[in-house]
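Hey, can you fold this one?
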Amino acid sequence: MACVSAAAVLTVFWPADAAFARRSSLIRPLTEVPRPDSPLLLHVSIKKQRVRVFDANGEVTSSRISSGQPGFDTPTGVFSILEKNEYHESNIYEGAPMPHMQRLTWSGIALHAGVVPGYRASHGCIRLPASFAQSLFGLTKVGARVVVSPDDVEPVRFDHPNLFKPLPAETPRSAGLQIAQETTQVAANDASPNADTSGLSEMPQLIGISPALAEAARDPDAFAEPGHPRSRAEADRQTIDKINKLQAALQSAETQKIAASEKAKLAVASADAAGPQMAAAKQILIPSAPRLLRRMAA
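Sure. Predicted structure:
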């Protein structure tokens, strides 16, 4: 009977233990994740019952969650962390404990530690495993963005002609103007030996390009705005030049400061040296002052 009971116990509890171990393996420990320097973005997938944490370099960590059960669905949308409390008690559900609470709405939705059974079980909040909630609490800041969506989201690339474009690595040549020059050269080569080519110089005017612009096309730097880099290499050079100029200006200012300090010291020393001379002069002048005044009055 004892053997049967033990077998029954193993039969009943082993699947649950295996499921717990499997779910626990889905949690990436934050103790191994360095604190990000860039702002964090949290994404919660209702369908997959997971939260993923991203920084500027990509995904930092992730964990299973438990969101709102049917009838108490967790709202979807874009939220911000409004408030953080290491320990909080619900003012809606009879003081239910909400450790490591990170508020998303003022109507009662928050991230916090709680029971995570593997399905939607909360009253609207997003429950996190206790260890993950504690570690995540130390990573996030008030204002961090939290996106709650029905399913996972993936970044989508988008392009538009009006978007800013990075500078090329090196200063480019004007490909379009080179093509125009080659086309003009072909037209000259196609002319017969007896043809009059004196009008070729006027050809750019006929197609909307002045001779000056066509001539300037041979020098792409003629189109560069003053002070505006045309490549990343040129931008780096300009930055280095600015840094060198600032360092030179600081060095010059420091030299002037030292020179002014030396002059001030000399002035103070000169004043100190003049003190005894002034005292001696007073000793001579003060006794003879009445006699000098009488002479002036006479």
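Residues 1-29, 174-191, 200-206 have pLDDT under 50 and may be disordered. Let me know if you want another pass with a different chain boundary.
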